[in-house]
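Checked the freezer inventory, then went back to the computational side. Two predictions to log before the end of the day. The first one is the construct we discussed on Monday; recording sequence and tokens without edits.
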Amino acid sequence: MYTVIDLFSGAGGLSLGFQQTKKYDIKVAFESNPIMQETYRKNHPGVEVCGDVCGADYPSIVKKYGAIDVVIGGPPCQGFSNANRQKNHAISQNNSLVKQYIRAIQELKPKAFVMENVSMLRSDVHRFYLCTTDQTLVNSGIIEIDSSRLELLEEEFYFDDALKIIQDPLQIEKYIWPDFDYLELNVIFKATQNPKKLLDVLNKHEKRLKKIISDHRSLDTNDHILHADSVAFSAIQDYFDNKISSDQLQKLIAPAIMYQRMLSKATEIYTNDIVVDRYDDTKGLSAIIRSFAVFDYLKAKLGTGEGMDGYTITADVLSAVNFGVPQKRMRFVVMGIRKDLATEIKLPEGKYKGGPYRTVEDAIGDLADVTPVYNVADDVTGIQLARKDNLNELAMALRDSTVLHNHIITKTTDVAMERFKALEQGQNFHALSEDLKTNTYTDISRTQNTIYLRLKYDEPSGTVVNVRKSMWVHPTKDRALSIREAARLQTFPDSFIFCGTKDKQYQQVGNAVPPIMAKAIAKKLASQLKKVLQETTI
């Protein structure tokens, strides 16, 4: 058996697929989220579960468990240019996590590695900006570099001292708000497009807003940013006092929000030691920065060395539906094998490629007559499952327990129930009559097609995310899709139990790698490792 470390393991879908082959022994899993750790431990007994991968001591792991053969995992990556203040500095965190994955490979020198992520990872959407620590690598010419423009401030909000301020960390620190203050005002700013939504949000946040209003009322009208802060929070108070309308509120808040977003991006530039080639203030304010694709960076770091220091790498976007998952989920998978072992490596091709594909009914049809519960507290002992004959192949594989856990749903409001009853299979929020669309979303026209989606029994589902937030509807029942049904669509067997609150359980399911897909990847890698290791011993 091959020894394995799973980085960014989540609930353990990737680990489960590898374990199901019976060819891998997972020694250690790293996951920073405590609830996901709990789920992982419950379903992977015997695996040492650690927290923050940034503090991983790989020499100690090798000393304890011996050489690690395979590293697996899916480091999150949103790309620097996709970040925004709402994510609380997700830029530096997510970029560093990809680099932490690479560090693990470089220090452990495993025989092989598997990395999975969203299918956009190899696109221009996900890029790293050049930081000082990577200048030598970039200057070597190994990575293809582009010049990227990071917009800091739109032209209509530009003011004379903006360029000077964002180049001075002390000035940035002087003006930038605490995250709490920004998030409070930003939620109001976003809601101003929908009067009903705005009223609800203001009522909900009134006490918190009033606590910070006085902190942002400056008498310095000559200081552009401080004056904008004062205008914004005074406007909030005026709105509470019925002195201005929602239309006026949006215009009065906007400058302060835009300046805070500018300051936040400038902070990230300094926090990440990003190399700015120049600032452009001809139309608004932008930073001109060299950037490169994340996948190109990974190839340069892991694919250019020789022998035990380099890897033969292959990568492609794999569709889960081709591997027997009843779900159209696209994942970018990178597989590498050490160059001293092989000069070629291949990803698997699914046996369902081209169809016929497994369907939603294949996955959850046998649960339609099982009444779900509404609360996690009601799920302690689970639901006893009666014997069911004539199951399809997928249902037989997933129905591996006589007790059903996580068959939990959200209680349906009267409004939601009206919508559920109005939707046919395959229809979503946009198919509802206008009177059923009101008072829910800020901008109805921009509501995603996955919202209030009633699944179709005779097709694979779309990508399973947090189906509670998306309000996915059961194909034939007027109710939400349960956590267990979402897990079935991800091909988790019923014996795999999710921990945490209802929302945390839904989120874990949505974040996971489908185990059946992971198993196919693991089998393909094992067969290639077996071949090359046999050849090296001859």
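The second is the one RB wanted added to the comparison set:
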Amino acid sequence: MKRILIASGLTILLPALAFAQSAADLKNAANTPDKVLTYGMSYSQQRFSTLTQINRGTVKRLVPAWAYSLDDSNKEESQALVMDGVIYITAHDKTAAINVETGREIWKTMISYPPETAMTVCCGIENRGGALYNGKFFRTILDGRVQALDIKTGKEIWNVRSSTTAEGYAMTGAPLVVNGVVIVGVAGAEFSSRGYIEGYDAETGNRLWRLYTVPRPGERGAETWPNQAANAAGGSTWTTGSYDPDLDLVYWGTGNPSPHNALDRKGDNLYTDSILAIRPKTGQMVWHYQTSPNDPFDYDNVQSVILAEINSGGSQRKVLMQAARNGFLYVLDRTNGELLAANKYAKATWAERVDMATGRPVWSEETKKILDHVEKIQNWPYIGGATNWYPPSYSPLTGLMYVNSANIGVEYEPLPLEELRKLNLAAGGRSGGNTIKTTNIFPDPEPRGYLKAINPTTGEAKWQTGFKSPNWAGTLVTAGGLVFTGTRTGELIAVDADTGEILWRFQTSSGIVGQPVTWQQNGTQYVTVTSGDRNNDNARRQDPNIANVPMGGSLWTFKLLPQ
């Protein structure tokens, strides 16, 4: 323990902070229930915990242990990291280290960026978390920087610029650290930026490599764009990838092509809306799989890529699984990208099915119309997708994925080609919804959203629990038979992993759009989640159920009340 003297003269004890986390520690993160060392709780991003103290029988005794104010009124989407009695959490403007048992702040490091940044970035003011490695905490900063902090003091070690908002870029995702390489992605397809993934040396901050996700003339994939990709843009990489140490491959999803309107970019538009397998030391692309070629619907394919071993075709396969924004759930052999399954898990009318021989979607007649000319159609899922960035979880005990999904469609009409070509679609110029003439959303009859337990090889739900508003929070599944997630009206809930029954709920101070995690400290299991949603006018128009939910960011931690 460490003694510190605070301003009032009171001496308090804080847990000793660890000095380092090795590459081996990160690879073993799934087997350390007393820690949460990586985004996704392990390199596989299963968000599964072996802890059982909080279970179906005891969850009714779950109560708040403490809450910490993040002093912010923006969206709090960050996932906490936990190590040796300390929680590390980010907001867009700060990083904080907090004592896990008391909720007291150990240190806080503020971030500043030009005030106009908030008005010029896509697509929101948030941060989704950080990464731990070798005594450092790594994070991205909204205006296009990557930062390393000392985990003992919060003092900045290095701060490097990756990109600028003038070029249309923003950075909100949590880094992935693999063998000393800090890997990050960018947002910005809605501002005509050219997506990329890049790696930095964890010790020095020197950039080691950059892999662009759309080509230029003469590069592989250029033939899938007009003019040999002279003006290719899009392919944002704004969430965090997964890693297989045995294969030494990182798996990262890429976003939609730019502009949203597809009339002036005929072709598959590689490598947008894809899953990429890359070498973490060099950034070399080993293989790719594209989910939505020539995407007109903003079906960003950046959803979490979950790694697991499952039975497929009568044998155990090393697979990756993704519940994609376009409404299909994909299972691929992660050694080579072979498609093993692709099935609808939500209402999806844009494609009839995926052709298993070619791996390509079979477009519906309605989609063919708007790829060829201007026409108004109705389409599912809506622009926000059947799911979005918020990560699902997977239990190796049940073999099910636990996914928050939306049940919303869109009235869609592209802007005519002659009007589209008048727009400023250069880097930094908006190229998202302004290229579509009509994007009115409409819900099916309630529920507007579901939490689903899905068989990844069939897309079928063992159960689904409906909600008036789609949940925009991540899910966490435990060996205690529980699924934790949050609602936009602010409830943290615990659901029976086998039946979908809501067993426990707690009202936090704002909407939950964060990512719950669990760990154990001194024999006590805890659950932590951020609360805080920015209910702007557009959000309230789309979803009246959240109109009266207050703003204000905070971090909540729960434990069992003694019997």
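For RB: The helical segments are 23-27, 117-120, 365-372, 417-420, 537-542. Residues 1-19 have pLDDT under 50 and may be disordered. Let me know if you want it refolded.
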